Amino acid sequence: MAGKEVKFGAISLIVAISLVLTACSSGNNGQTSSAAGASSSPGASTAAGASSGAELTKITQVTNWFAQPEHGGQYAALAKGYYKDAGLDMTIQPGGPGVSATQIVASGQAEFGMGQADEILLARQNGIPLVAVAAIFQKNPQGVMFHKGKLKDLSELNGHKMYVGSGSAFWEYLKKAYKLDQVQEMKYTGSLANFVAEPDSATQIYVTSEPYTMQQQGVDVDYFLNYDLGYKQYGNILFTTEDYLKKHPDIVKAYVEASVKGWNYYKDNSDEINKVLQETNPDLKLEAMAYGAKAEEPLIFGGDAETNGVGFMSKDIWEGLQKQLVDLGILKKAEPIDDVYTNEFLPVK
């Protein structure tokens, strides 16, 4: 999908440093609310559930891109009333170019955000105390796409072009792990035109999107998932701040449980919710969303989620990612990993 370089989870060093230097602002354009007009202030009331007659707690979550299947469960929870049932007046604010969920949540303009695991670690290093409360993707959908039959191993990319966002943490890892010292790095712009015209090139992608685009254009491709190449990080992390979590654990729990319920609904009812996504983002095509929903299913519901449920996070995965970023010099030091994430608010399976 054109423009996905902005959301491509691996955050650049420049962006990481600027997180604490840049003041953030965000309008309400494109926001979707489950109970417009509720008068409670953000986080002011206890999430007690609509059935109790209590006033709904007004909260906002910022996603990491425009509405699409990677956000299907969040929009399912909104459309089916799960947030409202949990006592929440939810507004979903779509991400997009120039929208930083970490900055918006850190500033208090939203209570919850969505991002990648490495973004959480980098934000914390730069003084933004975010905490991951659920990982929607057990395997991050980031990958490297190439023309079919051209690569059997990523090391064979030496001597060829790779379209990639500058400073991407996943790429720094792959270069070191696969000794990619002879790759011609080209700026990723979101367009696949150069990749299509150059059969020996490769490009960063989301496996839920770009392979479908190539399929529609009659271009035979294959891809490696970054997770399977060794850069094991969670995708579409739901996060809040340490301060909000400590002050409003009941709201955090209500939010996480409703979100997980939404993802379980989306798994079997993606065709229904994709129409909701299309209303929010008219550029989406139902056929492309159907492809994305199918492609992402094993990445969300497989792995540890099979046993522990959607959103579960492993200490080994978090520690492994942190060590990789320290080894690369992207992180200065390793902090106690238990401060970075918690499974406390996930529903008991």
TrEMBL record:
Keyword Transferase attached: yes
The entry's keywords: Signal, Transferase
Ranges of residues in domain SsuA/THI5-like: 68-272
GO biological process assignments: thiamine biosynthetic process
Gene3D superfamilies the UniProt entry points to: Periplasmic binding protein-like II (3.40.190.10)
Residues spanning the signal sequence: 1-23
One Pfam family recorded for the sequence: NMT1
InterPro entries named among the record's database cross-references: NMT1/THI5, SsuA/THI5
One Gene Ontology MF term: transferase activity
Cited SUPFAM superfamilies: Periplasmic binding protein-like II (SSF53850)
PANTHER family: 4-AMINO-5-HYDROXYMETHYL-2-METHYLPYRIMIDINE PHOSPHATE SYNTHASE THI11-RELATED, THIAMINE BIOSYNTHESIS PROTEIN HI_0357-RELATED
Official protein name in the record: Myristoyl transferase
Species assigned in the record: Paenibacillus stellifer
Phylogenetic classification of the source organism: Bacteria, Bacillati, Bacillota, Bacilli, Bacillales
